[in-house]
Description:
- There is one protein chain.
- The chain is of the alpha+beta class.
- The protein folds into four domains: 3-135, 2-Layer Sandwich (Beta-Lactamase), CATH 3.30.450; 155-258, Beta-Lactamase (2-Layer Sandwich), CATH 3.30.450; 263-337, Helix Hairpins; 345-488, Histidine kinase-like ATPase, C-terminal domain (Heat Shock Protein 90).
- It has helices at residues 3-14, 20-29, 48-54, 77-89, 136-154, 173-179, 183-186, 201-212, 260-306, 310-337, 349-363, 385-403, 456-466; strands at residues 33-38, 42-46, 93-99, 110-117, 127-134, 158-163, 168-171, 218-226, 232-243, 249-258, 345-348, 368-373, 380-383, 407-416, 419-426, 470-475, 481-488.
- Strands 2-1-5-4-3 form a five-stranded antiparallel sheet, sandwiched between helices. A five-stranded antiparallel sheet has the order 7-6-10-9-8.
- A hairpin with a 4-residue loop joins strand 6 (158-163) and strand 7.
- Helix 1 packs across helix 2, helix 9 (260-306) runs antiparallel to helix 10 (310-337) and helix 11 (349-363) packs across helix 12 (385-403).
- Adenosine-5'-diphosphate binds at residues 394, 398-399, 402, 426, 428, 431, 439, 444-447, 452-458, 480-481.
Amino acid sequence: MSRGALDRVGGTVTGEPLEPELAASALETAPMAVAVITAPGTISWANRAYFAATGRTPGLLGTDFHDIPETDGTWSPEIRAAMDATLRTGASSTFRAVKARYREHRPGVYLDIDIRPLPRRDAAPRQALLMIRDVTDQVAEHERSTVFYQAFRSSTNAMQLTDAEGVMLDVNPAYERIYGYSRAECIGRRPNLVRSRATPKEVYELMWQALLDPTKGYWSGELLNRDRMGRERPVVLTITAIRNERGAVTHYLGIAIDLTEQRSWELRAAHADKLASVGQLAAGVAHEINTPLANVMLLTESLRRRSQDPWVLERLDTVTEQVDVAGRIVRGLLDFSRREEPHTTELDLVEVARQTVEFLKGKQSANVEIEEAYPSEPVPVLGDRGQLVQVLTNILNNAYDAIAGVGTIRVAVRRRGDRTEIEIVDSGPGIDPAVLPNIFEPFFTTKGEGRGTGLGLAICHGIILSHHGSITARNVPGAGAGFLVSLPLHAGPAAG
Ligand code: ADP
């Protein structure tokens, strides 16, 4: 090998010439595989690490690398071409994380390869240094991190990573979707961003106790969080402390499984169950009561015909009134229990709403103003016309009751994505928040005796469920009660 060349390499790096022997022995024992190639391609020197890494013997020295089969060793066509270029023009090349193809290498060895020209002496042939570093561990580490990061990003559960002080470093797309905050809004904030006051303080105290306990280091439980819109989000949250090799906590990883949908599904299922059993009972009771009621009615009529006594006649009027009330309840019960599968046809929700409002306007007080907001396009749904009219009539009648003859009722129909909505908001006193969760239950009523059966909204709820829709009630700020019915939009053949 050329000692002078190495001497000058040493000189370039340190600014001071390195003893040629020192330079040679340093290179000989360096952990990096190094070979010197002399133009046009002779492998003229290689260090121990080179032989160790490539599994070659010193017999390799003096061979031309062009004679080594292309599929063998590091001599891929690109590296050959780069080496040729260096030996011809003195250009340098660098290859990062090249997959090695050494014969005896297990699969998946990665190398960083550098080709550098050696300073040229006079007319001597050009020489190049080939330096090979095994970076398999770094590549594997990088790949592992990439896979983990992708797993974090692709998870359908909301994930949040905080530092040891609990400052958020990252959140995944599921977190952004579930809580409605963007990643940028979260980074630098604390997880209490989504804390709900509905979750007692003690839950958080227990959580921190478990997290800070070195023998435990994780916490898991169900709690309520709060999304950006202020909606409560029931979640199963698991927080794990991430520790370094010395056992010190460096990060916390929080994983939340959103239970919102499951909860509303459970609620609906429970409600549907309740409706079904109450419905059966109601049907039985209604039939049983109908006959005695009819008898009372007949007897009253026959007594009325026989008596001239005003006192008796007045009492008989009261009996008739009470029988009427009972009859109304029985009809409600039968209506409630006789919930049939809807006979659906394609309907325009705007037209259904408009006609129902027109019909009720004729029957109700003139002091009530009805504001209607409909889109100019039809809003197609698949539905049972009679049943949908019944739902709207019931909600509108309740609204009339609530405003007690004077006020405003707003009716709006709109499309929202692949859903349709009808919203009815009145200017009444609203619904007592304490009973809001109960109003769809059968027999729940706040109306006086004989005025309400508490079956209207329960029937509406059943009808809307069988239409694959939802019905919700809320108190509208600045107004009274608001009912929202959502139904699937019917994309008929014309709509594609
Ligand atoms: P009913 O009208 O026979 O009481 P519903 O099932 O239709 O039965 O309604 C149940 C209850 O819901 C009512 O008694 C009332 O307390 C409440 N409610 C319904 N609509 C309204 C409204 N627009 N404003 C205030 N409260 C309402």
